[in-house]
Amino acid sequence: MRPALTQTAQFPSVSAPVRRAIDAALYGEALSADDGCALIRASGADLAAAMAAAAELNLRARPHRRVTYSRKVFLPLTNLCRDRCGYCTFVKGPGQAGAHTMTPDEVLAVARRGAELGCKEALFSLGDHPEWRHPEMAEQLDRLGYPSTPAYAAAMAQLVLEETGLLPHTNCGVLSRDEMAALAPWNVSMGIMLESVSETLFEPGGAHYGTTSKSPEQRIATLEAAADFGVAMTTGILIGIGESLEDRVDSLIAIRDAQGRRGNIQEIIVQNFRAKPSTRMRAAAEPSLVDMLRTQAAARLLLGPEMNVESPPNLNADGCGAYLLAGNNDWGGVSPLTKDFINPEAAWPEVAALRAITAEAGFELRERLALFPDYAASGRWYPSAAVAHRAGELVADDGYVRPESEVR
Ligand code: SF4
Prior knowledge:
This protein is of the alpha/beta class.
């Protein structure tokens, strides 16, 4: 029988369910939903022990104590969308102030400026198939010469890669295999947030009420289909949108299961809901820092040491340093040029400030591509020769951006 790693004498106040979950994680065993629920409810000594175990697990895979970020430009190719999520301030209707679909010239101008500033990633983040809802978008795509929004996104990704050398990472929602096939060769990785497997969110008044793209099954299918095209994927959970703590655990386990089947999930994001004016959820409570920490620790312990775990630093600017004490190892994308169009009220930190926050928590900030170092170093997750060639110019053998190419 294995000895308990968290001895009662050392942790007299830690509850038996949390101690059991921590021991299982540290022994490399798959945690059950009950284990996850014990962790995600943790407070007091239970939370402190869960965070310490999560931090320990992270260091097992990253003894060099590196924490990463991607230097990017944000390209909101279109803010039209087929859906209306209860928390979304990004989405606009065709006649609404601020509605915009970027032209190829606008895309190139931003990407070129980003390249001048040392960015490596072009993040295309856009609404899901807006042409299915808005005839105006279908007409605009027709004028541009594309049959669909994903086809336009694929062409813009190719343009940016070929003209600027920035490596695209596209988030454009649920994709068919044909759409994925068109996007894959021009993206170094792609993303789709699972957000939550909660069915409650689809009920009247729920965050996903009336949406068609937020189906967890379709989003998991998109994540898995990407593996067939050699595409590493970013996904994650959005917390505080009306889901239960059990739903969060089920969502993390659904991601773990998908990773077990296909192996192409390079990263999970634990993202906190932010209440925004003019949205249906403008008066909803936002997750606290403690809620973030227990969810991050649970994510690390459920997903294991190898998984990259990220939370955006700009959505909790005052407390984000604590994320690194709960097992996180990445800050996501940070831009010196463009704002966070999804959370426009939350400015990115300066890289120097992020470096200081990271150092204060005991880690070294390093730049990565939109493909994580372990995925880049493996050489397995390049969807095309063009992407592999450009990435190879930017990273060293260890998969991190070459030190001489980093912006300090
Ligand atoms: S969150 Fe995404 S899918 Fe939902 S309305 Fe906004 S852009 Fe559309």
